């Protein structure tokens, strides 16, 4: 799916416009102008994000450092998007590893305090920022690897699934998954679609219906993560793995992208049809209650 988005961003101007509307991509850029990285190795830091870019390898490492648990607040999401925009604009940056500076946690998912009891305007901005993060990672021209060095529930799991490859710390205390159901909420359909693209239909059905959080070993078994390594090795393994991915010529990447793009379009059409059916059904129920 990520590759599909990448392809359409490259080749379909119409869809680019559609996606940029969906993602409201101007929102992050409007706050702070992106700057190109000029040095051989550089480090740029916002309060919540630190990016180390090694120009000789073309690989950047994004450290999420929003204590205590990297919960995805509007402010944090905006910082992530700005950092991504800057890297995306620097054509010498070909790979991105995303990891956490917080002990034991990759990301606790959406910031619950930023979701409830807020104004409609804040909620709209918040959800746009969530979508923007999702689209920016999925549609990135860079190879992206999630170095999951701690627990990663809900939106944290989503973030890792938008990457091309996931390496998780092999510590049974950590867990990963879309656990929204356990919180009494329904995961948005694009969370579901992202998981279907990662682990397949049946595994997603089980995961979402039961709100399952998986241990690293279970996550590896269903393909939610691609590799487990010792806690101390997560980041180094990610950068080593990146070298392999970057050795593949970009043109092959684009070819696969076209296959995935076809699947993604079919999925989108189905989703739109299903939304229309739901609206019609809801109207019918509403009418039958009136009379
Ligand atoms: C267009 C779309 C429109 C509509 C969509 C409609 C509906 C969609 C609805 C929802 C989708 C939601 C997706 C989400 O991501 S919801 C968030 C789910 N997250 C969780 O369930 C994680 C909860 N947290 C944990 O499990 C743990 O905290 C942990 C495993 C991440 C870490 O455990 P620790 O033991 O190390 O730390 P704690 O003591 O538990 O926590 C420390 C500290 O952090 C606060 N905190 C934890 N998680 C969050 C969070 N997600 N948001 C905000 N704050 C969080 C926790 O309260 C503690 O704070 P205090 O120290 O007590 O102040």
UniProtKB/TrEMBL annotation:
Gene Ontology annotations of biological process type: fatty acid beta-oxidation
Cited InterPro entries: ClpP/crotonase-like_dom_sf, Enoyl-CoA_hyd/isom_CS, Enoyl-CoA_hydra/iso
One GO term describing the cellular component: mitochondrial matrix
Name of the top EC class for this enzyme: isomerase
Gene Ontology MF annotations: delta(3)-delta(2)-enoyl-CoA isomerase activity
Reactions listed under catalytic activity: a (3E)-enoyl-CoA = a 4-saturated (2E)-enoyl-CoA; (3Z)-hexenoyl-CoA = (2E)-hexenoyl-CoA; (3Z)-decenoyl-CoA = (2E)-decenoyl-CoA; (3Z)-dodecenoyl-CoA = (2E)-dodecenoyl-CoA
Coarse class of the protein's main subcellular location: mitochondrion
EC number(s) reported in the record: 5.3.3.8
Alphabetic keyword roster: Acetylation, Fatty acid metabolism, Isomerase, Lipid metabolism, Mitochondrion, Transit peptide
Pathway note: Lipid metabolism; fatty acid beta-oxidation
Compartment list: Mitochondrion matrix
Pfam families in the cross-refs: ECH_1
Known role: Key enzyme of fatty acid beta-oxidation. Able to isomerize both 3-cis (3Z) and 3-trans (3E) double bonds into the 2-trans (2E) form in a range of enoyl-CoA species, with a preference for (3Z)-enoyl-CoAs over (3E)-enoyl-CoAs. The catalytic efficiency of this enzyme is not affected by the fatty acyl chain length.
Sequence similarity: Belongs to the enoyl-CoA hydratase/isomerase family.
Assembly behavior: Homotrimer.
Name of this protein: Enoyl-CoA delta isomerase 1, mitochondrial
Species the sequence originates in: Astatotilapia calliptera
Gene giving rise to this polypeptide: ECI1
């Amino acid at each position: 799916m990520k590759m599909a988005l990448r392809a359409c961003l490259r080749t379909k101007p119409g869809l680019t416009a559609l996606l940029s509307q969906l993602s409201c991509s101007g929102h992050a850029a409007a706050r702070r102008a992106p700057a190109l990285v000029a040095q051989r190795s550089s480090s740029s830091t916002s309060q919540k994000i630190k990016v180390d870019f090694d120009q000789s390898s073309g690989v950047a490492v994004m450290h999420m450092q929003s204590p205590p648990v990297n919960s995805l607040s509007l402010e944090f999401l905006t910082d992530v998007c700005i950092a991504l925009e800057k890297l995306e604009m620097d054509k010498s940056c070909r790979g991105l590893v995303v990891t956490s500076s917080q002990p034991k946690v990759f990301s606790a998912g959406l910031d619950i305090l930023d979701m409830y009891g807020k104004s409609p305007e804040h909620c709209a901005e918040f959800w746009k920022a969530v979508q923007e993060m999702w689209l920016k990672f999925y549609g990135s021209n860079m190879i992206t690897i999630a170095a999951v060095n701690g627990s990663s529930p809900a939106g944290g799991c989503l973030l890792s699934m938008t990457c091309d490859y996931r390496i998780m710390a092999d510590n049974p205390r950590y867990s990963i998954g879309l656990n929204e159901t356990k919180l009494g909420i329904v995961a948005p359909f694009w969370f579901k679609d992202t998981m279907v693209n990662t682990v397949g239909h049946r595994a997603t059905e089980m995961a979402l219906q039961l709100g399952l959080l998986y241990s690293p070993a279970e996550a590896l078994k269903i393909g939610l993560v691609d590799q487990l390594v010792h806690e101390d090795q997560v980041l180094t393994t990610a950068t080593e793995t990146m070298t392999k991915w970057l050795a593949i010529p970009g043109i092959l990447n684009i070819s696969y992208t076209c296959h995935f793009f076809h699947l993604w379009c079919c999925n989108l059409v189905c989703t739109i049809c299903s939304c229309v059916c739901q609206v019609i059904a809801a109207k019918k129920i509403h009418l039958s209650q009136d009379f």
